[in-house]
Design goal:
The structure holds two protein chains of two kinds. By secondary structure, chain A is mainly β. Helices cover 0% and strands 48% of the residues of chain A. In chain A, strands 2, 4, 5, 6, 9, 10 and 11 form a seven-stranded mixed beta sheet that branches. Chain A has a four-stranded antiparallel beta sheet with strand order 1-3-8-7, with no helix packed on it. Chain A is globular. By secondary structure, chain B is mainly beta. Chain B contains no helices and eleven strands. Chain B has strands at 5-7, 10-14, 19-24, 31-37, 44-49, 55-58, 61-65, 71-76, 85-92, 100-101, 105-110. In chain B, the strands form two sheets. In chain B, strands 2, 4, 5, 9, 10 and 11 form a six-stranded mixed beta sheet that branches. A five-stranded antiparallel beta sheet of chain B has the order 1-3-8-7-6, with no helix packed on it. The relative contact order of chain B is 0.34. The model of chain B has no long low-confidence stretch (mean pLDDT 94). Classes of the chains: A mainly beta, B mainly beta.
């Protein structure tokens, strides 16, 4: 596609439920990032993929959060046993490779845990 | 998580005025990026900087990579109403992959 695509655009879930957020990067981009943005804050790093592997997952807040990118393209961010504090905008970005540093963001998924 | 210090936090300006904002870090960065974000949308990349001292323009926007490599500046000339939004800087340290974002500068333009 022309840009990074994230689905769904909005997700409302009940506390304790499991959610999956999907990211389709720009075609041909091997590097993929997940960020989380709370209201009034800048994006905070969660995890970085180069190809299929997570090269840096230091930003994942706890073991309820997990992300995969099995074929080196689409990525899924998975959150188990959601808590109200997980409510935020989840942003995905991609760049051509690890060397090319321009990262392009999708429109985000707004997650609300009630 | 870690965030870069951005200033000013917010500003109101008259249409046609020039705008300046900056971003500082306690770490040395090898890349600086500047983004604009509208409400409910993802950040849109404006300018990328790769070398200390580099000055890069994109239309009415000009950004500079500070010579200490710990700061960056963004200027907007002759502001227009559609410049309204939140501007974020993001930096990356050598040998790392993640970008660290600033706290944002909220810009409001009065027609």
């Amino acid at each position: 596609g022309a840009g990074v695509s994230q689905t769904p655009s909005n997700k409302v879930t009940e506390k304790g439920k499991y959610v999956e957020l999907r990211c389709d990067p720009i075609s041909g981009h091997t590097a993929l990032y997940w960020y989380r943005q709370s209201l009034g804050q800048g994006p905070e790093f969660l995890i970085y993929f180069q190809g299929t592997g997570a090269a840096d997952d230091s930003g994942l807040p706890n073991d309820r959060f997990f992300a995969v990118r099995p074929e080196g393209s689409v990525s899924t961010l998975k959150i188990q046993r959601t808590e109200r504090g997980d409510s935020a905008m989840y942003l995905c970005a991609s760049s051509l490779n690890a060397v090319d540093t321009e990262a392009f963001f999708g429109q985000g998924t707004r997650l609300t845990v009630v | 998580g870690q965030q870069l210090n951005q200033s000013p936090q917010s500003m109101f300006i008259q249409e046609g005025e020039d705008v300046s904002m900056n971003c500082t870090s306690s770490s040395i960065f090898n890349t600086w990026l500047w983004y604009k974000q509208d409400p409910g949308e993802g950040p849109v990349l404006l300018i990328a900087l790769y070398k200390a001292g580099e000055l890069t323009s994109n239309g009415r926007l000009t950004a500079q990579f500070g010579i200490t490599r710990k700061d960056s500046f963004l200027n907007i000339s002759a502001s227009i109403p559609s410049d309204v939004g939140i501007y974020f800087c993001a930096g990356r340290e050598s040998g790392t992959y993640k970008y660290i974002f600033g706290t944002g500068t909220r810009l409001k333009v009065l027609a």
